[in-house]
Specification:
The protein is of the alpha/beta class. It is about 40% helix and about 20% strand. The chain has twelve helices and 14 strands. The structure holds guanosine-5'-diphosphate.
């Protein structure tokens, strides 16, 4: 079975890792949100892409879910001592990634090519693609005005109340080389348990159309997110946060939906939307959970 997985950062990376443990390299393409990308300290930073790659390479910090394992913080500590901005925590090993990516981008190389080479260097066999090589920047409309995504997410710790989202540059952005090809050849597209508003929606806006069956895994369990602001965003936009809200979010393109055991009471409502359902344990706390959930998702897809 050939799968394209759409992923943001932490939640997406965990399921992508589970799928990669089961599917052979030619059967899995991970298409990653780049709307969170930004320039900081003169470096081009691609947080979701790095989280997915570090996770697939076994280099990720398992406690935070982002950044590198065994990280040191000398550079950012010294930047701070000099009065520079230190709100976006960059570890020393991680900075090497951003330095080399920035150098190559400045030479005019596309992000997809750089990502391919980094994956090779890190021993990642499955294909990881940025959604686009063009700059797309997620902008958060909030009660404090419009904020660039990392300003909202990291600097302001998601405190401003959201009013909506805009993906600056998305109209002009073409999918990165390989994205269309993957979407034409796969059997199914899986939306990993990533933030629907700011991780999956930007990818959807770039690819514009999916002509394959779509199965989504809910990032919301029992009305709450495992991590991050997705539930808070639904609430602030006037939608009760729940797995049902996520299913509704994607309802026009969804064939199947995977929700947690904790939400089994809403399964029938989702079925009424004409969406097939799988109720299972969707929490991926331990590395083994990733493979277990991926296995469940693949069996579910097989049954559709
Ligand atoms: P970000 O860019 O790092 O915020 O990452 P994503 O958009 O990929 O993931 C954030 C979403 O993943 C949040 O809504 C979380 O609730 C969800 N998430 C994280 N870990 C898990 C998990 O183990 N299971 C499920 N179902 N969702 C998860």
């Amino acid at each position: 079975m050939k799968i394209a997985a759409f992923a943001g950062g932490v939640g997406g990376a965990k399921l992508a890792d589970g799928l990669a443990q089961i599917l052979s390299p030619e059967d899995l393409t991970v298409i990653v949100n780049t709307g969170d990308d930004f320039e900081h300290l003169g470096l081009f930073i691609s947080p979701d892409l790095d989280t997915v790659c570090y996770t697939l390479a076994g280099l990720a910090n398992s406690e935070t879910g982002w950044g590198r394992a065994g990280e040191t913080w000398n550079t950012i500590t010294n930047v701070e001592k000099l009065g520079g901005p230190a709100w976006f925590r960059l570890g020393d090993q991680d900075i090497a990634t951003h330095l080399e990516r920035t150098r190559r981008l400045k030479e005019g190389q596309p992000l997809s090519q750089i990502t391919r080479d980094f994956c090779k260097a890190w021993g990642i066999q499955h294909t990881v693609l940025p959604m686009t090589d063009s700059p797309v920047r997620t902008m958060v409309a909030s009660d404090e005005g419009e904020l660039a995504f990392q300003e909202y997410f990291v600097h302001r710790r998601c405190e401003p109340k959201v009013r909506g989202f805009r993906f600056d540059g998305v109209e002009a952005a073409e999918p990165a080389p390989g994205v269309h090809e993957a979407l034409e050849t796969v059997d199914v597209v899986v939306f990993c348990p990533s933030n629907p508003w700011v991780s999956i929606d930007p990818i959807l806006q770039v690819v514009k159309e999916i002509r394959k069956p779509v199965v989504a895994v809910s990032p919301i369990i029992g009305g709450k997110t495992v991590k991050g602001p997705a539930a808070k965003m639904y609430a602030e936009l006037g939608i009760e946060p729940s797995a049902l809200a996520v299913a509704n979010h994607y309802r026009t393109i969804l064939q199947g939906f995977v929700l947690d055991n904790a939400d089994s009471n809403i399964e029938s409502v989702i079925k009424d939307l004409n969406i097939k359902t799988l109720v299972t344990d969707t929490l991926m706390n331990e590395p083994a959970d990733r493979k277990r959930l991926a296995d469940d998702v693949l069996h579910f897809i097989g049954s559709l």
